[in-house]
Amino acid sequence: MSTPMRCPNYEKLAENNPFANAELILTNGTIKVSKIVLCYYSDYFYDLFMKDLTKDKFEIPQIELDHFNCYFEVMQKAETLLLDGEFIVKLTTIQKELQSPYLESLIVNWLDNNLEKSYLPIIYETACNILSQLLCQKTKMLIQDNFKELCTISSYVSLSYTNLNELFDNGFMQTQKQEDFLILFTEWFEHDLKNRKLSWIELLRKIDFRWIEYDYIVKTFMPKHPAICEISQAVAILFDAMKQQIVPVNYSGKNSKIFLFGGDNDNKSIVCYDIWNKTIGVVAQLNNPKDNHTSQRIRDTAFVFGGNQNTTIETFNVNTNICETISLEMPSKGYGLSSAALGNKIFAIGGYINKKKVDSVDYFEAGKMSWIKNGSPCKPVGYHDSVVVDEVIYVTPGDGCFNMQRFDDREGHFTLLKESPTKAYGSAVSLFNKNILCCGGYNDRNLNSCYLYDIVADDWMSIEKLPLKVGGQVVGSTVPLVVNGDPKTQFPELITADNFPLFPFLLFLLKSPRILVDQLNWGIELNPANKVAFASDLNIPVPGWGNFDLDGNLYTGHINTDTRVGMQVRPVNKLKIKPETLVLLGQNPAFRAARKKAKEVLIGKLPYNYEPLKCKPPYCNPFVQHTAVAVEFEEGDDTFFIGGIDFPMPIGPHYSASSYITLLSKNDFFKLTISF
């Protein structure tokens, strides 16, 4: 059901109002109005008309005719009028005089729900002149929240120096790219070169030039803004700033956000971590799943490629959070690789293809949609990283090569450098004052070590360790830790790492699982050496029948003294597996279905045939504590008397049966057994 118009005859009365009893003389025109209607909607007009009830002409030079018409239309049409940015600018302007609570709430509601963000700067400029600060603070917050996007779709040239300076305070500027403010302030200055020069110089002093690259200022910024070269004071600021630069090329040291693309547990989400606000959340979704892949950024665009699931390449704009799949694809499904950017070239280095390490290096240029081969590293390497220092790529240690490797595109070949002390792969890699920091990693166990590689000295230096051990667990390894080749196994179809991810946690010995369990059995047996044994064998030929074979034996003495001790403890975690890993594994539907069909098996046996624990493969519940201890002792003071006679008995002319008489004695207990 449609909402009825508050004033259905507005259009007719707006053209010719026979009930008008007052005339408003505004800045650029006059309009006849009905006093009672305006008083009904506004305290401003009520107070104005009540000052002199006989007066019928009122001068209001602070209000423009166009703004008044906009206000009057909004008040008459109410909810049926579709507001746009132009309307809101005019309403904000007239709000300075009217101070209407209803009008203020109307503007705030539009700000909360509108998509026309390009109007925010001019609305902010107008709102700064209103006595109530609600609109001003609201608009400022929206501008700062959408700053990256607004830099591309809007302009701040209409703002006064005071309002611009207040809008971008020092605290907010520290969280953003400084290049954005250099461009913004310069465009604001170029809008009025004559009157804004001194204010522009003050705005430049707010920028932290340490985080703006030298090449950007000289090769990009100054050629685009030649007018600044005529202002000696500004040139001095820029060149002095370039001396302070502490960020290497291709790195913007004050990036306030870190983006994570895909991964094992959530292979399509793009997660953003805001360093300054210490917040994290999903900001977008990749078009294609990515796992064991790599990514590289050129200016505002991140290229995401590689992985063991597909060959697609996606771009992600860090300002707009928009993903696109480009037409160029990877030559093959390469995973565990690294990447590095030199200019417009993005290099893909090493990794795996079809479960085999590769030693290839390929690159593509963002403007040229093709892959180009570019040599090979000294040794094939996977699960590593690459960084760029002074236009040189350094490939960090990984699986297959524990040396640092250096590649200079101008030389066209790799150089093998010093080996890592940890011989680990999957380390976290970052730059520190043009040296390379490698933290954690994995070499049969997770590590908490940190080593700094000095590029000039070609040497590694140990620094303070991490508080926790961290490392990468390789998923889908081609060499499982255990392969159960028994065709009668309960899981015959799950004996490869591709199909069954449980191998790091499972060991089959004698067809019995030892899963996160420690077991120890030991014993001592003492022989008193007083045993006596007799044996005989008598053969008597019997004519017409055969041999009569009579065997006999007799054993007597004391039994051995035995002591046996055993223990079993669960859970133990020699592989340092995280509980979260086991929980995720238990959530796998195929895993649960297979375990439900499995039969219980014995985990271990302790002395006196004690069997304390059984479970269903492939693992027992690792979160329930279990401890078992068993002790068995046999004193050895018993005597034994064991003997027997074995002889044949004829049952026919050509047949015989074997008979055996056994005599057992233990602790004065005798047992006679006759067998046929």
Specify the overall morphology.
Answer: elongated
Q: Enumerate the spans where pLDDT stays under 50 for 5 or more consecutive residues.
A: 1-5, 246-254, 473-515
The number of helical runs is 17
- Identify the strand order in the major beta sheet: 29-30-35-36-37
Summarize the biggest pleated sheet. 5 strands, antiparallel
- Whole-number average pLDDT? 77
First-last Cα distance = 103 Å
Number of strand elements: 37
Whole-angstrom Rg: 43 Å
Work out the helicity level: 10-25%
Proportion of residues in β-strands? 25-35%
Structural class of the helix and strand makeup? Answer: alpha+beta
What would you say this structure looks like, in words?
This is BTB domain-containing protein. The protein is an alpha+beta fold and 676 residues long. Among the domains are: 175-254; 503-527 and 561-634, no CATH class; 532-559 and 636-675. It is 24% helix and 32% strand. It is built from 17 helices and 37 strands. The strands form 11 sheets. Strands 29-30-35-36-37 form a 5-stranded antiparallel beta sheet, with no helix packed on it. It has a 4-stranded antiparallel beta sheet with strand order 7-8-9-10, with no helix packed on it. It has a 4-stranded antiparallel beta sheet with strand order 12-13-16-17, with no helix packed on it. A hairpin with a 4-residue loop joins strand 5 and strand 6 (279-285). Helix 4 (65-77) packs across helix 5 (85-98) and helix 5 (85-98) packs parallel to helix 7. The longest helix has 14 residues, at 85-98. The radius of gyration is 43 Å and the shape is elongated.
